[in-house]
Amino acid sequence: MEERKPLLEVRDIVKRFGGLVAVNRVSMEVYPGEVVALLGDNGAGKSTLIKVISGVYRPDEGRIFFEGKEVKIQNPMDAIRLGIETIYQDLALAENLNVYSNIFLGREKLKKWLGLVSVLDHDYMLEESRKILDRLGIEIASLKSKIKNLSGGQRQSVAISRSIYWNAKLLIMDEPTAALGVAEQRKVLDLIRTLREQGVAIIIISHQLYDVFQVADRMVVLRRGEKVGERLREETTPEEITSLIIGAELVEEDRRA
Ligand SMILES: Nc1ncnc2c1ncn2[C@@H]1O[C@H](COP(=O)(O)OP(=O)(O)O)[C@@H](O)[C@H]1O
Ligand SMILES: [Mg+2]
């Protein structure tokens, strides 16, 4: 059998804030087309670890490999150039612009008008946006609607479409379903499955174990900055993951109390 190679590998990552070790010698891999859930209680180090991967923070120690080569990710642009896109909770969309303008935000397509001046090529951006939404099975009636008039789930889908349009190989999502209603949560989970089928690798942070068990292939659990467990979905249970998150010692103490 051909050995699969990780798309991303982080090795012995350490990130300190003053005297606090937020991430302590964490190593993990993500394979192409794999959904990895990053789990842990508040303050476990999840957001800090993904910010190291997405170039927001530079690690104090450790190495990062992408597509088999060691990379130095010094800033968010370095990550984006590699194909690592991160969807934060605020989504970084422009509320007053429409859907297709957001997909092309900062990367607008221009055309020459009368062979003289450069103007925005609205038709091209509209058509391209429609194609990417269709490819991902996302339903938004008009791509001329402003972001502020869309539902939470639709906004999420626009942010994800933008990443995929610009060739994300690894999509990182911090709590993608946290602010959504049940129907919308289901759509985001469907979208995650569609992305996986299309070969996109995903790291998802979520507190909702029910969601995680529906989409994740593998789970990595952090506690107080350290990796305390890693499980394939089919070989674990929500109970086991919960005890890893809160710490088996605590469960023992509770029993004794
Ligand atoms: N910018 C920062 N400055 C100082 N401490 C931070 C900073 N960001 C996070 N921390 C601390 O690092 C630890 C890990 O935080 P974080 O990565 O946000 O955890 P999680 O996302 O798992 O809730 C926490 O103790 C947090 O208070
Ligand atoms: Mg966090």
TrEMBL record:
Residues 8-249 form the ABC transporter domain. One of its GO terms (molecular function) is ATP binding. Keywords: ATP-binding, Nucleotide-binding. It comes from the Bacteria. Pfam families: ABC_tran (PF00005). The keyword Nucleotide-binding applies. This is ATP-binding cassette domain-containing protein. The lineage of its organism: Bacteria, Pseudomonadati, Atribacterota, Atribacteria, Atribacterales.
